[in-house]
Design brief:
single chain; about 475 residues; Rossmann fold; Helicase, Ruva Protein, domain 3; five-stranded parallel beta sheet; 22 helices; disordered C terminus
């Protein structure tokens, strides 16, 4: 075992030579002396700064005095158990990652802990190498999260990412792409479901470009009647059609020197697409009823919740225009694929709407948070914002409860129907994956460990998949191990 610890410590030292590597600080909360001391020694040998306490009460005390990157907490302790400690840690310092330790018979407690924000859990008895690997992954997530937070703080001076919230891996990559675009003038295609925040991404691109300070004009193409699209976008001259009683500038001219954001680009008519293609090719537009070309300096950003690849195949969207637009593509993932961002988004929206009401932000109950984490969010971030705004506005006390959320619990069948309605290959694959997991669990009489081994995944991944697909194995198989 010492050899394993030395290998991990050596690996860490090699990594630290090649990058800025902070001395991570870990708190061990364990009431069993031997276990507490063994973990402390192993973590110290791996190069971490370690404190240890023997009770939940002590853990809360030291958290008030020190900031820790990671806490390793035993769930089963007298007086104050691990779940209470987790809640205190997350309330005092939400950025502290938490790994919980649990006996094999108390897996439900570990699941509750993960719903409340724990990074992962390990089941006793375990090998030191197992928990060291989990700790290493948790601290790597912490390092990346801190990097994003640092960049977001730096953004107050150099970058503007107002409302673009998240520290999940997909959002970290997305923010990195946005920062790479600060000197680019390329056309950008933003894809994603309704409510994911595509306009926020477009605005962030504009605000960090050389065009910041110039107009940022937003056009919802889906809200423009097809017979008025060309007039609204490119303008018209008096007398060009019935009702054209005066000249109209058009939204392209309004955006001169800045950025034009065309949302729901898939809703434009084919004739409008021809004119947009001409502009992208040579910077030229023509008003309706006028043959005189107007040359403009505008950056184009477009967004869609449709599959433009499919639209080009069925002829509703021009291939040549699609190729012109698809220079840099940014996909904004749905909220159900980045659920670890939900607590951050909740905190952001609670502060936002509490500030508008000039009141102190209420706390959110554990049950309410669990409900928010379990919900599929078909309306994505926009739906979450509306739910939090309503809860903050209408709650009478200092705590938001499930009743304040106005969200109905969906049955497993309903949740699968939502996934199917969202369409595409992803939904079909998800349905097939769910079927495979159910059959494998049934084959192993509900034993998660055996099922995970058969599927070639970890028990933690299996649990997450079961949670995602609402596979309630206790009911299905009536066994303690599921």
């Amino acid at each position: 075992m010492k050899g394993v610890v030395k290998k991990l410590a050596k690996k860490r030292k090699i990594l630290c030579r090649n990058m800025i590597c902070p001395m991570f600080k870990i708190l061990v909360v364990e009431d069993q002396k031997n276990m507490r001391e063994s973990l402390s020694i192993a973590f110290k040998r791996s190069g971490y700064n370690v404190d240890s306490v023997e009770s939940g009460e002590k853990a809360v005390e030291v958290q008030n005095e020190h900031t820790y990157d990671l806490a390793v907490v035993d769930l089963k302790m007298e007086n104050m158990d691990g779940l209470e400690v987790l809640s205190h840690i997350k309330r005092i310092n939400p950025s502290t990652e938490v790994v919980v330790m649990t006996a094999y018979g108390t897996i439900d407690g570990a699941i509750q802990a993960m719903r409340r924000g724990a990074y992962d859990y390990v089941t006793k008895p375990f090998q030191l190498s197992d928990i060291l690997s989990v700790v290493e992954r948790a601290l790597e997530k912490k390092r990346l999260s801190d990097k994003v937070i640092s960049l977001q703080k730096e953004g107050k001076e150099r970058y503007k990412f107002e409302g673009v919230i998240g520290n999940s891996p997909v959002m970290i990559r997305l923010l990195s792409i946005l920062m790479e675009l600060n000197r680019s003038e390329s056309t950008v295609l933003i894809t994603g479901e309704s409510g994911t925040g595509k306009e926020l991404i477009a605005r962030a691109i504009h605000d960090n470009s050389i065009r910041r300070g110039k107009p940022f004009v937003v056009v919802n193409c889906g809200a423009l009647p097809e017979n008025l699209q060309e007039s609204e976008l490119f303008g018209h001259v008096i007398g060009s059609f019935t009702g054209a009683v005066k000249d109209k500038r058009g939204l392209f001219l309004e955006a001169q020197g800045g950025t034009l954001f065309l949302d729901e680009i898939g809703e434009t008519s084919l004739s409008t697409q021809v004119k947009l293609l001409r502009f992208l090719q040579n910077g030229e537009i023509r008003k309706v009823g006028d043959n005189k070309p107007i040359y403009l300096d505008i950056r184009i950003i477009v967004a869609t919740n449709k599959d433009l690849d499919e639209a080009t195949k069925n002829g509703s969207f021009r291939k040549d225009l699609f190729y012109r637009l698809n220079v840099i593509r940014i996909h904004v993932p749905p909220l159900r694929e980045r659920k670890e961002d939900i607590p951050l988004l909740i905190s952001y929206f609670m502060d936002k709407y509490s500030g508008k009401l000039r009141r102190r932000a209420p706390e959110i109950s554990g049950d309410a948070m669990e409900h928010l984490m379990d919900y599929l969010w078909p309306g994505n971030v926009r739906e979450l914002e509306n739910v939090i705004e309503r809860a903050v506005t209408l709650t009478k006390g200092n705590q938001i409860t499930i009743a304040d959320l106005a969200l109905e619990s969906a049955s497993p069948a309903d949740m699968m129907n939502v996934m199917i309605e969202m369409g595409g290959i992803r939904a079909a694959l998800a349905q097939e994956e769910r079927k495979t997991i159910v059959e494998t669990l049934r084959k192993h009489a509900g034993n998660r460990k055996q099922a995970a081994n058969n599927l070639g995944i970890s028990t933690t991944t299996l649990w997450r998949k079961m949670k995602e697909y609402q596979i309630v194995s206790k009911t299905s198989y009536n066994t303690e191990n599921t």
